[in-house]
Amino acid sequence: MILNYIWIGFFVIGFVVALIRTIYGYAVGSETDAHVFAEIGMGTFTSAKSAFTVALGLTGTLTLWMGLMRVGEKAGAVNFLGRLIGPFFAHLFPGVPKGHAAHGQIMLNFSANMLGLSNAATPMGLKAMQSLQDINEEKETASNSMIMFLALNTAGLTLIPVTILALRATSGSANPTDVFVPILISSFCATLVAILTVALRQRILSSKLIMWLGGGIALMAGVIALFMNLSPHARTEVSTVGGNFILFGVILAFIVAAALKKINVYSEFIEGAKEGFGTMVKIVPYLVAMIVAIGVFRNCGAMDYITQGLTSLFTWIGTDTRFVPAIPVALMKPLSGGGTEGLVVSLMNKETSFGPDSFVGRLASIMYASADTTFYIVALYFGSVGVRNTRYAVTAGLVADFAGILAAIFVAYLFFG
């Protein structure tokens, strides 16, 4: 429902701003302001064409990765990750009885999300919520375990950010994977903050949990320290080479593991690739709708006014302002994944905006993968089990999103500043 209001708002605000500019333009003789409706009209056609071009380019990339993910799923990658992180999760959900089905479902959901398997993660997540509801004493109120589960989902830790890498490749990036390591760092920060926020509220921050989190923090601090000691060129080089090495290593691991299990790798890849093509067909209308609406909002001048206002504010504070054009991505992400995707595509357009390899284009890419659609996730999961009182679930999710965005800005300056 909120996406409906946002979409309508883009057009209404666009019309109002354009009308004011037109009146002002004829009053003072400003040709640019007077002809703003013509610019908006032409922009709708340009935006629609741009959206379809992006979708067409995404088809091949998503088809490839959906096929590879299917191979990984059949090879047991999700189950492997579930076993790997199982001991850690036992400390996050003390309210779930040992051996309960919810434990396995939660781990499989988290593992699938880390691998970018959203199609598999959502059904697993819904099953996990139902299992948590079965042991929930107050059926219309979110339990502590439910809130922790939702916080982990809204933080969105991702090992393989397929969608944004595909968008960058389609937008003509010279190095689509140069944001791989920054995304890993920023999404880790969002997840860490989500866990700490909920754990402190629920008073489950045990010594063993602190040890697990401390190990993760130490590892990520080591990665950041390593990159801070490198020159800007070396950071980009290491991130690009390292990202590509990890990605290809994962692909090879999927294929080899599936082959060792005597799975018909090629057939499974084709089946997964078919799902990718179907997914892309479903995305096209949403992508066109959002990119056209964002185009109206931008061409009327409203986006420029917001950016200029924020730039003036941060200039007055005394901070660098290069990150400001990417702020709309941060504001949109908790509300709508499709809307955020449209904003990112617009910012990465080489002809009308900054381009994928600009500072803004890279920052927008990192922001996109460093937070998740909090309101959608809360509505989907709690709605599926009839929970009305979500307590502090939304707050925890938004805190995690905010931490992810701040981390995204920090790593963008660290790697590409």
Protein traits:
417 residues, mainly alpha, 18 helices, 79% helix, globular
Overall description:
- The protein has 417 residues and is mainly α.
- It has one domain (42-416).
- The protein has helices at residues 2-28, 31-34, 36-75, 77-92, 101-114, 118-134, 144-155, 162-170, 180-202, 207-228, 232-260, 265-299, 302-317, 327-332, 337-347, 359-370, 374-385, 393-416.
- Helix 4 crosses helix 5 (101-114) and helix 5 (101-114) runs antiparallel to helix 6.
- 46% of the residues are buried.
- The model has no long low-confidence stretch (mean pLDDT 82).
Helix content: over 70%
Number of separate helices: 18
Residue ranges: pLDDT <50 for 5 or more in a row? none
Structural class: mainly alpha
**Mean pLDDT, all residues:** 82
Helix and strand layout, with pairings?
Elements: H1 2-28, H2 31-34, H3 36-75, H4 77-92, H5 101-114, H6 118-134, H7 144-155, H8 162-170, H9 180-202, H10 207-228, H11 232-260, H12 265-299, H13 302-317, H14 327-332, H15 337-347, H16 359-370, H17 374-385, H18 393-416
Helix pairs in contact: 1-12, 3-8, 3-11, 3-12, 4-5, 5-6, 6-17, 7-9, 7-17, 7-18, 9-16, 9-18, 12-15, 15-16, 16-18
